[in-house]
Amino acid sequence: MTCQELEIKTLNSIDEIGRQSINSLGCDGFHTYEWLKTLEKAQPFRILPQHFIVSEDMRLEAIALCFLEYSSQYRTVEELFPFSRTLRRLGSHFGLGENPPLVCYSPSSFQSKILFAECSNQREILHSLSKRIDDFCAENKILMSCFPYVSQFDKLLMNNLPVFGYLGSPVADTYYLDIEWPSFLGYLESLGCNMRHNVRREIRKCKDEGIVIQREEDIKRLSEELSHLYNNLYQKYNRGRLCPVNDKFFNGLGDNGGQKVRLMTARKNGKLVGFCISLCHSHTLDVFMTGFDYDCRTRTDSTYFNLCYYKQIEMAIEEGVKKIHFRGASDEAKLRRGCRRERMYMYTKIQNPILRPMISQYMRLMNNMRNRGMRMPSSSILANLAVSN
To answer: What predicted TM-score, i.e. pTM, was given to this entire model?
Structure first.
């Protein structure tokens, strides 16, 4: 296979790719037709799909899910690094472009991936995709392209993105659990003696507090309550920001998520006090979204780990899931319960050749300061760099 033999198209809707095509290559719930259709229909935040589809002789070889990212469920690429928004404003001021970054990942996940068909020449395809992304950015005056969450285990992207002009830096730690046990008891036995005792105590406390956790199917019926509980959690950790997810999103997930969605609820005296939503595909479970009624919970009822951890493990074992992906935070708590750390890296390429030297110098400075544990500089340093360049 050579670069000349590959055909790369840019598509603006998941329906143009098709359910079978994306689901046959997708390796988790975020890289499925059901999830991406939910985003297109519910539009919880502003993202414009620009998917790159690679084929050879009419045969699908790879898919790169990409978006112009104006806003997101969490922080955007422009918010992750202080130089990004300044960069776009500078570009707009000098007429060099005003579009937001082109990001390659599935929104709301912490996963940047290229989906490959079996037996494909992956490095050759990645090289062709990189060139096509460069051309697309030039055609549309996009100043920056980004793979925001590349796993340390994705050696193809880790080794080749720098060759194609991308600068990398660590951005987040997530956690995963390989499911290796035929029963939940087997999982418990894999833990150390003290941790095993703690888990049993937390399960018992949850029951003693009257918390009932169960699987539910009808997300739409609970959409308003789920929206309220998620907003509670979002505002707790994102004060001053407007929660982008509302009942329209949960209704959309009910309409389009299908068999990929797992909803677990926690009730006390019949009242909904917590929930956890996971996405499941290809023997992988992503624990994705949770929310709580903090007024009805106590500090000692252990609802969080029962709802978002132990019940997820039980469900995964029952369904034959091989791996569970968890988010970050509560790092030590997850490690003590058997999880392993997975470091994510952000790879960014400044597409404009005029601004590239200045911003690349700034990014290297930030990486060096971060590695030394130093305080990150203000994006105003760009002005000084601009003068020196």
So the answer is: 0.86
